[in-house]
Structure formats: C-alpha cells, structure tokens
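Recap from last week: sequence in, structure out.
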Amino acid sequence: MAAPSSTKGAALGSFALWRRRWALWYDAIMLPDPQKLLDDAMKLPTSTRAELVGRLLDTLEGEADEGVEEAWQAEIARRVTELDEGRVMTVPWAEVRRELRARQGR
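Predicted structure tokens:
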C-alpha cells in the first residue's frame, strides 16, 4: 500500500532539510576562511597578487555589452598617446590616496 501523500511530503521535506544542513556543514568545513585567504594572498609577490586580482575580477564580470571592449581599447590607446606625448602626467597612487582621504575627511 502506498504511503499517503502527506507522508511523502514530510519525507521529502526532511531530506531537503538534511541536505541544506549538510551543505552548510560541508561549506563550513571545506571552504577556506576568507580572512585566511586574504592573509595568504598578501604574502604573495606584487605581480602574483595583481594576476590573482585580475582573475578574480574576471569571475565577477558578466557578458559585456556590445562595443564595451572596443570602447575600452580606444580609451586605453587615447590615454597612452596622451602620456607618450607628454600632455598628461601620472600621479603616484600614494598621493591619489592621500587626496581622496583628505576629501573624505579621514
């Protein structure tokens, strides 16, 4: 004799609850601590950290709108030309950061 549908629903609900709890436990045990990942990443050489950042950002980006990649390439070319021709000067990051913090009142 088949079990009443309410019994099947309860069994499926119990399994779903168990599966959610198991997934949370698994994630807590198996996934690395984000702070430890950051601490470990900060020990890497600058070039390796830069590559890691780029790869992480790539995972966050969705499909770009049509023409965005070409627009960025054109913008980069324009900026390089301005630098090469001496029309603009670079500013060290430490100076930019100081200015930004001053504007924010920090």
